Each structure stands twice: as C-alpha cells, then as structure tokens.
Amino acid sequence: MGRGRSFQVGGNAFAVVLRAWARPIFLILLLLILFIFGTVIAVFAWPQQATASVSGIVTDVDGPVAGALVRVQTTANHTYTDEDGGFTLQGIPTAESVTLVAWAEGYIFGWTEAIGGDEEVGIELHPHNRVDNSVYDWEPSENCGECHPSYSEWQRDAHSQSAVNVRFLTMYNGTDVEGNRSRNSNYYTGLPRTRDPDDPYFGPGFKVDFPKRDGNCAACHTPMASKLDADNSCGWNGCHMQETSDASDELPDGVSPNEAVGVAAEGISCDFCHKIGAVTFYTDTVLPDPAMPGILSLTLYRPKSGEDLLMGTVDDVARPKDSFNQLHRESAFCASCHYGVNDTTEIYNSYGEWLESPYSDPDTGQTCQNCHMPEAPRLTSGMESLVQTAAWLEKTSGRTLPAALGKLAERSQRSYFVYPEKGGLFRNLDQIHLHQMPGANDEQFLRSAISLEVAAEFEGTELVVNTEVSNTGAGHHYPTGSPLRQVLLVVRATDNGGEELALVAGEVLPEWAGDVAGLAGQGYAKILRDTLTGEEPTFSHWRMVELVEDSRIPALSSRKGMFRFALPNGESAQGSDEINIEVQLIYRRAFQQLQQWKGWTDPDILLASEAFGVAASTAE
C-alpha cells in the first residue's frame, strides 16, 4: 500500500500521512509552503476590529487605589488610576473581551474581563503578605518546570549548582575532590601551624581553619538550608563555636552548607528568588552592609501555610497570589550576594564595580539582568512565522524535527513564559528573560566581553610587540567575582627554527601564573596576602587578608603592553628572517597550584589569540 494510503479507522489520517512523509526534504518544502501562506495572510490582513474605550475604578478594602497600573494583558496598552482610583483605556475591541490586569505596590494582581464600551468596570486589589514566615517549606524547582520553559534553563545556570559546586565544597571543607582532607591549621587560635612539607596537603579550607564554626558561606550558597529568620545575624554568620551554641538557649546554631539536603541542595532556586521583596543597603554607602551578606540583606516574603506569593518582572499576570516587583528588573537585586567583605578588605564586589562603571547610568546603561538574563532573542515577523510553523509541524507529526528545524521548534516556546498547553499566553519576547544566566561557565559569553589587539614592528636589532586588551562588554571588572579567577596575556616570539627570542624589555608573568610564569605577558587578577602568615597570593579569603594588587580591567577600560625581543644573533631587521609572533589571552578559573591541590580539572579557556609572521619587508 502506498504511503499516502496508510489510513487508520478512528485515527488522525492527516497525522498518519505526515509521519510517513516527515523526512527532511518534505518537511522543508512543507515548511516553506506554510511560511509563504502565512506571509500572504499577513499582507492581506483581516479588517480592523471596531474599538471603544473602557472606564472603571480600582479599589481595595479601604476604597479607591490611586496610581495603580491597569494594563490590557500581554499588550502595551496601559494607564494609571487617578487620585479617585479611576481609569480609562482606549482601543478596546467591542466584539471580544480582553483581560484587564491591575497592580499597585504592595498588592497582588487583580483582573477582570471587559469589552470596548464597558463603563464602571471594577477591579479589586488585595495586599500581599508583608511578614516573612521563616518556617516556610520551600517549593522544589521541578514543580515550576511543569509549566515554565525557563526551568531547564535554570538547571544549566550556576545558581542552581551553588550548593553542590565542587570548587565551593572542597574549599569550604579543606578537601580534594576525592574527599582527602588537610590537617587542621590551628588558625582560629591566632597561631596558625606552619605547614609541614612532608604532610599530605589538599589545599585550604574554611573548616580546616575554623573546625568548630560554620561561617557565613550558607548565607549566599545555601540560603534555604535553615529555618532561621533572614535577619538572624549570629546564625547566618556562624559567629559562635558549636559548643557555645549548644550551651545556650538563645544563641542559634550556625548554618552549614554540608547540611543542605532536599530542596536546600538546589542552592538558589526559583522559589527563593521569586520570594525576594527588597534589598537593604548600608546607610553610609550604596552597598549592602558588609556584615550582612546574602540572605541577611534580603527582605523575604515567605507566606503562611496554605498561602503563596511569587514576584517577578511581568506586570500583568492574571493569577492568584502573584505580584510585580520592580526590584527584579534592577541590578540591586543581585547586590547582597555579589559583594563580599572580610573585616575591612573587599574580597569581591561585582555589584560595586558595576555601580562605578558607565553601565550604571540609568539613562544609557545596562543592568546585570540585561547581560545575564537577557530578553529572549527577538525574531523578525517572518522568522516568527517560520518558528511557530516548525513547532506546529513537530507537535502534529509526533516526531522531533531534524537538526536546524528542531532548533526552530524549540525556540517557539520562548514566546511564552508558561507553556501554552498550561494556559500560557503568547507574549512579546521583551517580556521573557532567559534563565541560564551565562557567566564564568560560558566560554562564548566570556569571549564576547573582551578584545585583543596586537601590532609588531622592528626597531634596530629588536622586535617590538604592542598589545592592548580591552574590557569591551562586561559591566564590571574583567575578571570579576572570586579572586581565584585570572586572565593571562602570553606573548611569544620565535625565529624560523622555533627558537624563542629573548625578552629584553617588558613585563613577565608572575610566579602565580603557573606553567606560563616567566614568559612575556601580563596577568589580570586580584592578589590578596594572608596578614598573619604572609602567604601571597592567599586562597583563604576567610582569613585576615590584605590587598596586594588589583590588575583586573575595569568596564570599558584597556591594558596596554610593550614587549621588546632581541633579534637572533643581534641582527638588524634587514638581516633577519621572518619572526613568528603568537599572543594568547587565557582565562583561568583558579590558580594552578590550587587546582593541583584540589584535583580540579577545569581547563584553561582561550579567550582570544593572534598569530602571524613579521619580516623586514612588512615591518618597515
């Protein structure tokens, strides 16, 4: 029987035919036909619907609510209520109803249906919970994945791994990846033990230095690991030794990242972020209080049992217990965990670096979210039709489309932040923010923010190589965050026989650069010294430390270098063979010595490179 006749009684005949014919060439042809058909329809658009205005009032239990936002759901059509709570919206269809959603600060969304011409439409707002319930049971993020495409993106985000990150846990516990542990250092006594070179050593660790304290790591890495109040400074900072807490009815236990199990092992979850209501900043600065890291500087709105509250960036959600929060659109949302101070020494401060950069300009700048949670990629109208057609074809055929066609179908879900089969509404892509949050774990993202320029010339008996490394796209220093990170510029010049030319002037990479130490180049890093032991660089940032140097590249800034190499046998350029130049820009997640102790296997990332030959004829 021919393919086109394989019908089944009681089945979907079209789907059966489609399965048989759903091979790449036929899929492509069908896709093109449907695309052309959709374009024709768009050109000869349906007649304009008749519209009229809608007026009404927004109230709460006490009466009218002034200044409330009222929006036609999923559209740009919106207004604000006057001092009497009244509003009027123009351009509302008279033939079919639309959803009007209202919101005001401190309230959950209210909504109603209306058609053009309606008057005296009423929308009632109810205040959301303003008291944090610390014994709230956090929701697993997989529950969110039932309806939200962003769940799979979050799973690829470093925030979802903050509680189980092997670098974090081995640094916290003083172990290597195999679980071998370094000896306690006695650091907490003020007289740290000198490390015996014959003693097995698996790198530093907070618990090696402070075995009876939990520290404050959990305040950022595992904030769901305790039922403590969010402002319980002693508990979240892990101030007291375990014996002290056990002997007191008033002093709380600390919070150990090692005890993060279940939902707490999700690190920074969907539910945690969408319960954040406010960030508290230190009265003397525009930064959080240095003594209140992470959760301690956050106002959480965890509801009572049986209730719920979720806040986010979309201001027209017709769902019970949801609310809009402007903070979620602002860099301030990130501040409490991306600013860390030990005593008076700043350890990391990505938020403060952004504040001091041109990117923080409210009119021309970019927020953290603009780069790390960007709007979904915008499609042209024609491309959007193609994407939606691919999604329909995949669903109808019951098969995953091959290669690029499958990618098109996958992108169709980014027009929704709730799956359409779960009631999600088609939205403009600027309302949908990607949740994989690229950062130090994304090579392409790292490369996109940095540039390398190289030029070379002969001067007498020397070859001069000029370099310029520019932070072109990061809204903070490059690198940023953990002081373990570094970027290395490595400059090599060799003759035709592969022999390296001697460097006669210019910087060389420091000892901490590991396998490239001593080579021509520059290191961009934040170097700290242990105040008690003099170790430099120190990796134990929880100890008393002091800043030695900060050679990282601020936002929209550059670092230039000049390196002079002696030509072979003291020849001049005219008597020299072609010289080969290779310049590499390398991103290293942690100091090589530390990686060896811990057994970390993160490879170097080549950010940029230039390789070329220079002969006398091209250098003049």
Strand order of the largest sheet: 20-19-17-22-23
Distance between the termini: 77 Å
Secondary-structure content class: alpha+beta
Low-confidence stretches: 1-22, 42-46
Per DSSP E runs of 2 or more residues, the count of β-strands stands at 23
Please indicate the count of domains.
Answer: 4
For this structure, the quaternary state is single chain
Instruction: Let me know the average pLDDT.
Output: 88
| Rg over alpha carbons | 30 Å
Helical segment count: 17
- Judging from the principal axes of the Cα atoms, what is the shape? globular
Fraction of helical residues? 10-25%
Largest sheet: 5 strands, antiparallel
Strand content: 15-25%
InterPro entries: CarboxyPept-like_regulatory (IPR008969), Multihaem_cyt_sf (IPR036280), Multiheme_Cytochr_ET (IPR051829)
Keywords: Membrane, Signal, Transmembrane, Transmembrane helix
GO molecular function, one term: oxidoreductase activity
Pfam families: CarboxypepD_reg (PF13620)
